[in-house]
Protein backbone atom coordinates (compact mmCIF):
# COMPACT_ATOMS: atom_id res chain seq x y z
CA UNK A 1 0.00 0.00 0.00
CA UNK A 2 2.88 2.38 0.73
CA UNK A 3 4.20 1.97 -2.82
CA UNK A 4 0.76 2.74 -4.21
CA UNK A 5 0.51 5.94 -2.20
CA UNK A 6 4.05 6.91 -3.18
CA UNK A 7 3.18 6.28 -6.84
CA UNK A 8 0.24 8.67 -6.52
CA UNK A 9 2.22 11.32 -4.63
CA UNK A 10 5.03 11.30 -7.22
CA UNK A 11 2.59 12.18 -9.99
CA UNK A 12 1.00 14.93 -7.89
CA UNK A 13 4.50 16.38 -7.34
CA UNK A 14 5.17 16.18 -11.09
CA UNK A 15 1.96 18.13 -11.69
CA UNK A 16 2.90 20.76 -9.10
CA UNK A 17 6.37 21.11 -10.60
CA UNK A 18 4.76 21.55 -14.02
CA UNK A 19 2.63 24.44 -12.71
CA UNK A 20 5.65 26.27 -11.28
CA UNK A 21 7.81 25.57 -14.32
CA UNK A 22 5.07 26.49 -16.78
CA UNK A 23 4.44 29.83 -15.11
CA UNK A 24 8.16 30.58 -15.07
CA UNK A 25 8.41 30.21 -18.88
CA UNK A 26 4.96 31.50 -19.83
CA UNK A 27 6.41 34.73 -21.26
CA UNK A 28 8.67 32.77 -23.63
CA UNK A 29 5.99 30.77 -25.46
CA UNK A 30 2.54 31.38 -26.86
CA UNK A 31 -0.29 28.89 -26.36
CA UNK A 32 1.42 27.30 -23.36
CA UNK A 33 -1.09 25.13 -21.51
CA UNK A 34 -0.56 25.51 -17.78
CA UNK A 35 -2.49 23.73 -15.08
CA UNK A 36 -3.82 25.52 -12.02
CA UNK A 37 -4.36 24.28 -8.49
CA UNK A 38 -7.90 23.16 -9.29
CA UNK A 39 -6.30 20.45 -11.43
CA UNK A 40 -4.34 19.26 -8.40
CA UNK A 41 -7.57 19.08 -6.41
CA UNK A 42 -9.08 16.95 -9.18
CA UNK A 43 -6.15 14.54 -8.98
CA UNK A 44 -6.69 14.15 -5.24
CA UNK A 45 -10.24 12.95 -5.87
CA UNK A 46 -8.70 9.66 -6.95
CA UNK A 47 -6.67 9.15 -3.78
CA UNK A 48 -9.38 7.42 -1.66
CA UNK A 49 -9.90 4.85 -4.41
CA UNK A 50 -6.39 3.48 -3.79
CA UNK A 51 -7.71 2.03 -0.54
CA UNK A 52 -10.58 0.21 -2.26
CA UNK A 53 -8.54 -1.84 -4.73
CA UNK A 54 -8.51 -5.14 -2.86
CA UNK A 55 -12.08 -4.66 -1.65
CA UNK A 56 -13.09 -4.28 -5.31
CA UNK A 57 -11.22 -7.47 -6.23
CA UNK A 58 -8.40 -5.56 -7.95
CA UNK A 59 -4.63 -5.85 -7.43
CA UNK A 60 -2.78 -3.14 -5.54
CA UNK A 61 -1.90 -0.15 -7.71
CA UNK A 62 1.74 -1.19 -7.56
CA UNK A 63 1.51 -4.97 -7.57
CA UNK A 64 4.45 -6.38 -5.62
CA UNK A 65 3.81 -9.86 -7.03
CA UNK A 66 4.80 -8.78 -10.55
CA UNK A 67 8.19 -8.43 -12.17
CA UNK A 68 9.41 -5.08 -13.50
CA UNK A 69 8.75 -6.37 -17.00
CA UNK A 70 5.16 -7.36 -16.22
CA UNK A 71 4.28 -4.20 -14.30
CA UNK A 72 6.11 -1.60 -16.40
CA UNK A 73 7.98 -2.69 -19.53
CA UNK A 74 5.22 -4.64 -21.28
CA UNK A 75 2.39 -2.09 -20.88
CA UNK A 76 4.78 0.80 -21.53
CA UNK A 77 5.96 -0.94 -24.70
CA UNK A 78 2.39 -1.49 -25.87
CA UNK A 79 1.73 2.21 -25.36
CA UNK A 80 4.82 3.04 -27.42
CA UNK A 81 3.51 0.89 -30.28
CA UNK A 82 0.19 2.73 -30.28
CA UNK A 83 2.08 6.03 -30.19
CA UNK A 84 4.25 5.02 -33.14
CA UNK A 85 1.15 4.01 -35.09
CA UNK A 86 -0.42 7.42 -34.46
CA UNK A 87 2.80 9.17 -35.39
CA UNK A 88 3.11 7.37 -38.73
CA UNK A 89 -0.57 7.56 -39.67
CA UNK A 90 -1.19 11.19 -38.69
CA UNK A 91 2.14 12.82 -39.51
CA UNK A 92 2.92 10.90 -42.71
CA UNK A 93 -0.36 9.67 -44.22
CA UNK A 94 -3.06 12.08 -43.05
CA UNK A 95 -3.13 15.17 -45.25
CA UNK A 96 -2.23 18.33 -43.35
CA UNK A 97 -0.29 21.53 -43.89
CA UNK A 98 3.38 21.80 -42.95
CA UNK A 99 3.86 22.76 -39.32
CA UNK A 100 4.65 26.46 -38.91
CA UNK A 101 4.13 26.40 -35.14
CA UNK A 102 3.73 23.85 -32.38
CA UNK A 103 0.50 21.91 -33.11
CA UNK A 104 -2.12 21.69 -30.34
CA UNK A 105 -1.14 18.12 -29.42
CA UNK A 106 2.40 19.21 -28.48
CA UNK A 107 4.04 21.59 -26.04
CA UNK A 108 7.59 22.98 -25.78
CA UNK A 109 10.21 20.59 -24.41
CA UNK A 110 11.05 19.95 -21.57
CA UNK A 111 7.82 21.43 -20.21
CA UNK A 112 5.97 18.79 -22.24
CA UNK A 113 7.30 16.07 -19.92
CA UNK A 114 5.50 17.58 -16.95
CA UNK A 115 2.27 18.46 -18.75
CA UNK A 116 1.76 15.13 -20.51
CA UNK A 117 2.84 13.02 -17.54
CA UNK A 118 0.28 14.86 -15.43
CA UNK A 119 -2.31 14.64 -18.19
CA UNK A 120 -1.86 10.89 -18.54
CA UNK A 121 -2.25 10.49 -14.79
CA UNK A 122 -5.40 12.63 -14.67
CA UNK A 123 -7.03 10.75 -17.54
CA UNK A 124 -6.30 7.40 -15.93
CA UNK A 125 -7.89 8.56 -12.69
CA UNK A 126 -11.18 9.49 -14.35
CA UNK A 127 -11.23 6.97 -17.21
CA UNK A 128 -10.28 3.93 -15.17
CA UNK A 129 -9.34 4.25 -11.49
CA UNK A 130 -12.62 5.77 -10.29
CA UNK A 131 -15.21 4.08 -12.57
CA UNK A 132 -13.70 0.58 -12.56
CA UNK A 133 -13.02 0.60 -8.83
CA UNK A 134 -16.46 1.97 -8.01
CA UNK A 135 -18.38 -0.48 -10.19
CA UNK A 136 -16.42 -3.53 -9.08
CA UNK A 137 -16.67 -2.48 -5.43
CA UNK A 138 -20.46 -2.17 -5.74
CA UNK A 139 -20.78 -5.53 -7.50
CA UNK A 140 -18.55 -7.18 -4.90
CA UNK A 141 -21.41 -6.56 -2.45
CA UNK A 142 -24.06 -8.13 -4.66
CA UNK A 143 -24.47 -11.88 -4.11
CA UNK A 144 -20.85 -12.14 -2.92
CA UNK A 145 -19.50 -10.80 -6.21
CA UNK A 146 -21.32 -13.32 -8.40
CA UNK A 147 -21.67 -10.78 -11.22
CA UNK A 148 -18.34 -9.03 -10.81
CA UNK A 149 -16.75 -10.55 -13.93
CA UNK A 150 -19.66 -9.47 -16.10
CA UNK A 151 -19.59 -6.02 -14.50
CA UNK A 152 -15.91 -5.67 -15.36
CA UNK A 153 -16.51 -6.49 -19.03
CA UNK A 154 -19.28 -3.89 -19.22
CA UNK A 155 -17.34 -1.10 -17.49
CA UNK A 156 -14.19 -1.96 -19.46
CA UNK A 157 -16.09 -1.56 -22.74
CA UNK A 158 -17.91 1.60 -21.66
CA UNK A 159 -14.78 3.27 -20.30
CA UNK A 160 -12.92 2.34 -23.48
CA UNK A 161 -15.54 4.09 -25.61
CA UNK A 162 -15.18 7.40 -23.81
CA UNK A 163 -11.96 8.63 -25.40
CA UNK A 164 -12.85 7.71 -29.02
CA UNK A 165 -16.21 9.49 -28.59
CA UNK A 166 -14.69 12.58 -26.95
CA UNK A 167 -11.97 12.80 -29.61
CA UNK A 168 -14.06 11.75 -32.60
CA UNK A 169 -12.27 13.11 -35.69
CA UNK A 170 -15.15 14.97 -37.34
CA UNK A 171 -14.49 15.89 -40.94
CA UNK A 172 -11.63 13.42 -41.36
CA UNK A 173 -11.38 10.82 -44.15
CA UNK A 174 -13.43 7.68 -43.51
CA UNK A 175 -10.33 5.50 -43.21
CA UNK A 176 -8.89 7.74 -40.50
CA UNK A 177 -12.16 7.73 -38.56
CA UNK A 178 -12.06 3.92 -38.57
CA UNK A 179 -8.38 3.94 -37.56
CA UNK A 180 -8.83 6.48 -34.76
CA UNK A 181 -11.90 4.79 -33.28
CA UNK A 182 -10.40 1.30 -33.52
CA UNK A 183 -7.03 2.13 -31.99
CA UNK A 184 -8.57 4.48 -29.45
CA UNK A 185 -10.94 1.80 -28.22
CA UNK A 186 -8.26 -0.90 -28.49
CA UNK A 187 -5.67 0.81 -26.32
CA UNK A 188 -8.22 1.86 -23.72
CA UNK A 189 -9.60 -1.68 -23.52
CA UNK A 190 -6.09 -3.12 -23.14
CA UNK A 191 -5.50 -0.62 -20.35
CA UNK A 192 -8.59 -1.88 -18.54
CA UNK A 193 -7.42 -5.48 -18.96
CA UNK A 194 -3.94 -4.67 -17.66
CA UNK A 195 -5.49 -2.76 -14.77
CA UNK A 196 -7.56 -5.78 -13.77
CA UNK A 197 -4.63 -8.15 -14.19
CA UNK A 198 -1.62 -6.14 -13.03
CA UNK A 199 -2.92 -3.12 -11.13
CA UNK A 200 -3.70 0.48 -12.04
CA UNK A 201 -0.04 1.49 -12.43
CA UNK A 202 0.22 -0.68 -15.56
CA UNK A 203 -2.66 1.22 -17.12
CA UNK A 204 -0.91 4.52 -16.38
CA UNK A 205 2.36 3.22 -17.84
CA UNK A 206 0.63 2.22 -21.08
CA UNK A 207 -0.72 5.74 -21.57
CA UNK A 208 2.68 7.21 -20.70
CA UNK A 209 4.25 5.07 -23.42
CA UNK A 210 1.77 6.45 -25.94
CA UNK A 211 2.26 10.05 -24.78
CA UNK A 212 6.05 9.69 -24.88
CA UNK A 213 5.93 9.09 -28.63
CA UNK A 214 2.92 11.07 -29.79
CA UNK A 215 3.09 14.15 -27.59
CA UNK A 216 6.64 14.45 -26.23
CA UNK A 217 9.08 13.04 -28.82
CA UNK A 218 6.90 14.19 -31.71
CA UNK A 219 6.87 17.64 -30.12
CA UNK A 220 10.67 17.65 -29.77
CA UNK A 221 11.03 16.79 -33.46
CA UNK A 222 8.62 19.53 -34.53
CA UNK A 223 10.14 22.09 -32.16
CA UNK A 224 13.80 21.54 -32.99
CA UNK A 225 13.78 20.09 -36.51
CA UNK A 226 10.68 21.23 -38.40
CA UNK A 227 10.38 24.80 -37.05
UniProtKB/TrEMBL annotation:
Transmembrane portions of the chain: 34-52, 72-94, 114-139, 174-196, 208-226
Keywords linked to the UniProt accession: Membrane, Transmembrane, Transmembrane helix
Domain of life: Bacteria
Protein name: CAAX prenyl protease-like protein
Amino acid sequence: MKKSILFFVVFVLIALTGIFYGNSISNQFTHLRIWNYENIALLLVGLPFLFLQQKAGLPDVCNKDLTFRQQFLTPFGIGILFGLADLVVIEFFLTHTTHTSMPPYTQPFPYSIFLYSSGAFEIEIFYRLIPITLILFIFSKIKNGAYQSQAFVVIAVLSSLREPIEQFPHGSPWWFIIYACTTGFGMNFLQAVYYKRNGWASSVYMRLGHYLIWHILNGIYIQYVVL
